[in-house]
Amino acid sequence: MKVLDEIEAAIPALRRYARALMRDRDRADDLVQDCLERAVASRHLWRGDGPVQAWLFRILINRYRDLQRRSPLPGHLVAIEDLVSEPAQCGGQEGALALREVQEAIARLPVDQREALLIVALEGRSFEEAASLLDIPKGTLMSRLARARATLRVLTGRGTGAEVVPGPSRGRR
After folding, report:
1. What are phi and psi of 91, to 5 degrees?
2. Rounded CA gap, 68 and 22, in Å?
3. How many CA atoms lie within 13 A of 34 on its CB side?
4. Contact (Cβ atoms closer than 8 angstroms) between residue 32 and residue 24
5. 55, burial (CB in 10 Å: exposed 0-12, middle 13-18, buried 19+)
6. Cα 123 from Cα 126, distance rounded (Å)
7. CB 152 within 8 A of CB 102
8. First-to-last CA distance in the chain?
9. Which is deepest, 18, 75, 83, 168, by most CB within 10 Å?
10. pLDDT (tens digit, 9 = 90+) per residue, 76-116?
11. Residue 129, number of CB atoms within 10 A of its CB
C-alpha cells in the first residue's frame, strides 16, 4: 500500500510537468492518466531503489517521448531564424505579457531542451536528479539547459543570438 500512497502523492507534480510539456490541459491529463495506469499495473516491477516519484517521472517522460515519435505536435520544430520577433509591449499587463512571451518561447524549444528546462526550473530538481529522470548524463543535461536558456534569451529579446546553438541536441542519450 505504501507504493500506492506515494503514487497518489506524486499526482500534482506529474500533472504540472505534463501540462508544461504538452501545452494542452486535456492531453496532459491523458498523459498523466496513462502514466498512472502503467505505474499501478506494474507496481510489482518497481525495484525500490529510489523514490517512487522519480520512477513515475521516468514513466511519464518515456510515454511522452513515445507519443512525440508517433504524432509530434504541429509546428513543434521551428527554425530560430524563421521566428518573428516583436518588441515587448508596455502597459498595465506587462507581467502577463512577459509570462505569455516566455511560455510561447518555451513551447518553441526542441523537445529535449524543453524536457530538461522544465524538470529543473518547474519541478526544482537538482541536476543529478534531472539527469537521472531523463536518463542522460549530467553533462548532457547541462548542455541542453545552456542551449535552452540561450535560445529563450533570444526568443524573448534578451540576447543577441550569438550564444545559441541551433537545433536539438546531437545525441538523445
Report:
1. 155, -175
2. 10
3. 16
4. no
5. buried
6. 9
7. yes
8. 34
9. 18
10. 555 555 545 554 445 456 777 777 888 888 888 998 999 99
11. 19
In this structure, are residues 115 and 123 in contact, taking their beta carbons and an 8 Å threshold?
Answer: no
Spatial separation of the C-alpha atoms in residues 70 and 65, rounded to whole Å: 9
- Whether residue 77 contacts residue 166, with contact meaning beta carbons closer than 8 Å, is answered with no
Distance CA 87, CA 170 (A): 32
User: pLDDT tier at 150 (50, 70, 90 boundaries)?
Assistant: very high
Q: Look at the block and give the residue holding cell 513515445.
A: 66
Q: Is residue 166 classed as helix, strand or coil in its secondary structure?
A: coil
Residue 171: predicted pLDDT: 46
Altogether, the residues listed in the chain come to a count of: 173
Among residues 77, 69, 73, 66, the alpha carbon closest in space to that of 31 is found at: 66
Q: How many CB atoms lie within 10 A of CB 44?
A: 6
Q: pTM for this one?
A: 0.57
Round to whole Å and give the CA distance between 8 and 5: 5
